[in-house]
Amino acid sequence: MTRRAPLLATALALALAGCSDDSPEKGADPAAAPTRAPPDPALAAQQIREPLVAEDIAGAALAGELSCSFAQAGAEGPLLVAQADVTDQARAAGVLKLGPSTLRLRGAGTGGFNAMVHGARFTSGDLEASVAVTSQTPLDDSESPPLPARLAITTPAGTEQIDGEWTCGP
Fold first, then answer.
1. Contact at 8 Å (CB) between 107 and 92?
2. What CA dihedral angle connects 49, 117, 122 and 98, to 10 degrees?
3. pTM for this one?
4. Which residues are CB-neighbours of 61 under 8 A, at least 6 positions away?
5. How far is it, in rounded angstroms, from Cα 64 to Cα 110?
6. What is the pLDDT along the chain (170 residues), one digit of tens a residue?
7. Are 146 and 167 in contact (CB under 8 A)?
8. Which of 125, 106, 121, 126 has the alpha carbon at shortest distance from 152?
9. Maximum distance among all alpha carbons in the chain?
10. Nearest Cα residue to 94 out of 103, 102, 105, 86
11. β-pair partners for 128
12. Phi then psi for 2, rounded to 5 degrees?
């Protein structure tokens, strides 16, 4: 019976919310009533995550000559930063922001910086973070222009995909 209590409470809350009166007051001009835009499903499906801050990146003590970063669309900073040397034997290392915590990542293969430019795969225990570049069309004309990309974070619980941009360079 204790398992049903939370379900009953949730059902009751939803039922009461459906009964709320959002209509304009009686006697008010219906044209003056505020109109609501339909909810944007893209925003509802994907909340902006808290980005890495400088202290998170410095604390990860990443080594490498060059770096790449993934920033969620609309975010103020990156969710993932990775660095590697420019040698075929080098393996990238990275840091990922997960809620209030950071997670140190290891490149899934060698290839150095050049192996990250068009996307990369990182692991940490049973978590995998993969960045896939979704278009080769740069988003601006800077020296190291960002490319549209998707970050997939896979755990035993499932996969979450986040749209954003992948930027690599000095």
1. yes
2. -10
3. 0.72
4. none
5. 13
6. 333 333 223 332 333 233 334 444 445 454 444 443 444 444 444 599 999 999 999 999 999 999 999 999 999 999 999 999 999 999 999 999 999 999 999 999 999 999 999 999 999 999 999 999 999 999 999 989 999 999 999 999 999 999 999 999 98
7. yes
8. 121
9. 76
10. 105
11. 123, 154
12. -70, -25
Reference 122, options 103, 139, 140, 137; nearest CA is 103
Helix/strand/coil (H, E, C) string of the chain? CCCHHHHHHHHHHHHHHHCCCCCCCCCCCHHHCCCCCCCCHHHHHCCCCCCCCHHHHHHHCCCCCEEEEEEECCCCCCCEEEEECCCCCCEEEEEEEECCEEEEEEEEEECCHHHCCCEEEEEECCEEEEEEECCCCCCCCCCCCCEEEEEEEEECCEEEEEEEEEEEEC
Tokens representing 139? 């988003």
Spell out the residues 6+ positions from residue 2 whose beta carbon is closer than 8 angstroms to its own: none
d(CA 91, CA 140): 28
Tokens of 117: 């430019």
Which tokens hold the place of 50? 């808290």
